[in-house]
From TrEMBL:
Bilayer topology term: Multi-pass membrane protein
Keyword Transmembrane helix: yes
Predominant location category: membrane
Originating species: Kitasatospora aureofaciens (Streptomyces aureofaciens)
Superkingdom, taxonomy of origin: Bacteria
TM regions (residue ranges): 25-48, 277-300, 306-330, 337-363, 396-415
Protein name, UniProt field: ABC transporter
Subcellular location: Cell membrane
Annotated GO CC locations: plasma membrane
Keywords per UniProt: Cell membrane, Membrane, Transmembrane, Transmembrane helix
Length: 432
């Protein structure tokens, strides 16, 4: 075989000479620019203005006030406050779910609300006591947050509930000040201290819902979902490239070692079947290792480990099968397409870090079918909500099944079409 510099050896190209060819730059430049623009708009577009995009954030509102209406009033103070809270919320920013205490705790336990604003049973008595001077305690409202739905969503809901309670307190204060003469007082300050208390009479306390100390402040569900999706996405692409290299349809290059195996004549459909079978087997290994590392080594809170493993395996498998189907259909750019389907579009529409109620409508639309939202809800239900089906687990299982069926139908539909058209991948090569 001729070597470089010997007579008859092919002349090697020079990098700088090739770099002067505009056509060589065109395709990668356009593709890289398009990816940069899309990723920037997709990722940042979902998080830059959560308050401005707020739409019907679910918060429970509980009126447990059992007091009789004060003289001259048709309803008690708790009812007046809850009505003022609902009426004082601008536009469609909050979805106030009025319920009783048991209902509020059920909504929190099933992940249906980000927080709850609770009006106590003695609220009317405490408010009346302020006006008559017979109060023994300041009226206190309680905001109960749900950190299992994510720290950002719980924080936003808590701020909204506290703000609504403060506005109601100021409104009630104006009524109390109008009913109490300015000269009515005790003490040398002419009642200034008492009137200052009446101007903003309600106290608001905040309590965080129960969550384990090894749960990442509620973010462990998102990161475990991300691990499951990445296991399927990266593992699927590794299997795709490994099989193509082993069957001689792509070069295998590790460091300076480059090989090209003899091409094995095999149809596209059989190749896809092989990749999907390998995906199902290898996901068993990766799912087990993820559980071992996160729970066994790092000590992540996971009360339903068997259910977590099974759900995560099926989730990774659905993603892996989807990757194989997309790669089989789109060829060389399949990995880029699957990256957008399972990562770029899925992350900002997952609702796992920024609530879907705080992102633009486009992401709420994506969240209806993008896999990460469905998988995140299912894993969150397993980790934080006692594996309740109504906390998102049932929807997660349904969407996994739908994803598997779509991957199989799309993948084998495309490969069978290519095979019938005679679009075979193999090129006959001698086997040395």
């Amino acid at each position: 075989m001729a070597t470089t510099g010997s007579p008859g050896a092919p002349r090697q190209a020079r990098a700088l000479a090739l770099a002067r060819r505009p056509k060589l730059w065109l395709f990668p430049s356009v593709l890289c620019a398009l990816v940069a623009v899309l990723l920037s708009l997709l990722y940042m577009g979902g998080i830059v203005n959560p308050n401005g995009n707020l739409h019907r954030l679910p918060i429970a509102l509980v009126n447990a006030d059992r007091g009789a209406p004060p003289p001259g009033r048709a309803v008690n103070s708790g009812t007046e406050l809850t009505r003022a809270v609902v009426a004082g919320t601008p536009g469609e920013t909050v979805d106030w779910k009025q319920t009783d205490e048991a209902g509020a705790h059920d909504l929190i336990s099933s992940g249906k609300v980000y927080a709850a604003l609770l009006v106590p049973a003695d609220f009317t008595a405490a408010v009346t006591g302020l006006a008559t001077g017979g109060a023994t305690a300041r009226p206190t409202l309680t905001v109960l947050t749900n950190p299992a739905l994510g720290s950002l969503g719980a924080s936003m809901a808590s701020q909204i509930a506290q703000g609504a309670a403060h506005q109601a307190s100021l409104a009630t204060g104006r009524q109390l000040l109008a009913a109490v003469p300015a000269t009515k007082s005790s003490g040398p300050d002419g009642g200034a201290t008492a009137r200052l208390l009446l101007a903003d009479p309600f106290a608001v306390t905040t309590k965080a819902g129960p969550i384990g100390s090894h749960s990442g402040l509620g973010l462990s569900a998102f990161y475990y979902t991300l691990l499951s999706v990445l296991s399927g996405f990266i593992g699927g692409n590794i299997i795709h490239n490994g099989v193509d290299g082993a069957l001689g349809y792509s070069d295998s290059e590790i460091g300076p070692w480059h090989t090209r195996r003899p091409t094995v004549p095999i149809s596209r459909t059989q190749t896809l079947l092989l990749k999907m079978v390998m995906t199902a087997g290898i996901m068993l290994l990766t799912t087990s290792l993820v559980l071992l590392c996160t729970v066994g080594i790092l000590g992540m809170d996971a009360p339903h480990m068997a259910m977590l493993w099974l759900f995560a395996y099926c989730a990774s498998l659905a993603v892996g099968l989807g990757v194989q189907a997309i790669n089989a259909a789109f060829g060389g750019i399949g990995q880029l397409v699957s990256m957008f389907v399972f990562i770029a579009l899925a992350l900002p529409s997952s609702g796992a870090t920024v609530p879907l109620q705080a992102v633009p409508a486009f992401y709420r639309f994506l969240g209806a079918f993008e896999p990460m939202r469905q998988l995140s809800d299912g894993i969150r239900a397993i980790l934080f909500f006692d594996a309740r089906s109504d906390a998102g687990l049932a929807r997660g299982w349904i969407m996994i099944a739908v994803g598997v069926v779509l991957a199989l139908a799309f993948g084998f539909g495309m490969t069978r079409y290519y095979d019938r058209k005679g679009l075979h991948r193999w090129t006959p090569q001698p086997s040395d």
